[in-house]
């Protein structure tokens, strides 16, 4: 039967995170520190709007680019929060941030083109690039430089086939927030080499210690080469609603993404789009409270991890992850994660799932209760002590 399966399907890697999660689902008493989603419920006002929208008949197709009311609300959001002028025509509403990412790649990259990808980085970057017949080329993010990208090292990976570069801040899996200067160096590099920039900013509101996200939309000189990927999933705890969006000052790009969306999913769910409008207009208090809670959990996790021997990490300023170096205990992070799950019933994401540069690491999510974080790290400590 394999001859009926496409090469594209066969060569697209499965998620290494899901391998651990799927095994954990069959076990009882597991503490899930591998999950990449807020453990908060979607705010009641957003759920209520979805229910009202269903009763009002929002059960049909919308414009391929999304409801004009939502696109206007997104434009208003960028004006009020980031002081950037955006028009509804420069916005497309998608099925999650992954939908925005996929359409961004599909609209800008051709078969055989190379795309620069952070390593470690979000696993679907690689999957999507391979799906469309392009080639992922990796630039390393190293612990000894704070997991920050270096423009000169990225430039070494550029060839005549390079078409685009993916940037992710706040970063998954490192939790690092890129400064304006770091992003500016990448913007200048992309401009000099005429590259498309796909800036994944889905964790933009989840920052700590006074760190501020800097959206690449502020770099006006690369406006025609830039698409920003964003989502309601992390900001408003709406992962299951599948509402994301992309913003670009290149209206022609948005137009083509809209055209392609018709052939992929047609449009995002109408009732979820209506609910997202309420999130943007009335959900800021929820966001602020969630960030404060994540800050407390981050501080707790950092304190607990600091007590582990022969490990290291960079303190995250954003998202809800810590990338823990466990290379003194193993050179195989999959094997480590599987053994930890079996022996101690703690789920963590193997570093290898995010790229070669993060082999010897595990990603620990603090999107869980303080009680579970304390118990989870206690079990991890026991596991490490027995491996010595």
Secondary structure topology:
Blueprint: H1 7-11, H2 16-25, E1 31-32, H3 44-55, H4 68-82, E2 91-94, H5 96-108, E3 114-119, H6 124-131, E4 135-140, H7 151-155, E5 162-168, H8 180-192, E6 196-200, E7 226-231, E8 244-247, H9 251-264, H10 270-282, H11 284-306, E9 321-325, H12 333-344, E10 346-347, E11 349-350, E12 361-365, H13 370-387
Parallel strand pairs: 1-10, 3-4, 3-5, 5-6, 6-7
Antiparallel strand pairs: 2-8, 7-8, 9-12, 11-12
Characterization of the model:
- The chain is an alpha/beta fold and about 400 residues long.
- The chain has two domains: about 1-40 and about 285-385, Aspartate Aminotransferase, domain 1 (Alpha-Beta Complex), CATH 3.90.1150; about 60-280, Aspartate Aminotransferase, domain 2 (3-Layer(aba) Sandwich).
- Helix content is about 40%, strand content about 15%.
- α6 (about 125-130) links the parallel β3 (about 115-120) and β4 (about 135-140).
- The chain is globular, with a radius of gyration of 21 Å.
- The protein starts with 6 loop residues before the first helix and ends with a helix.
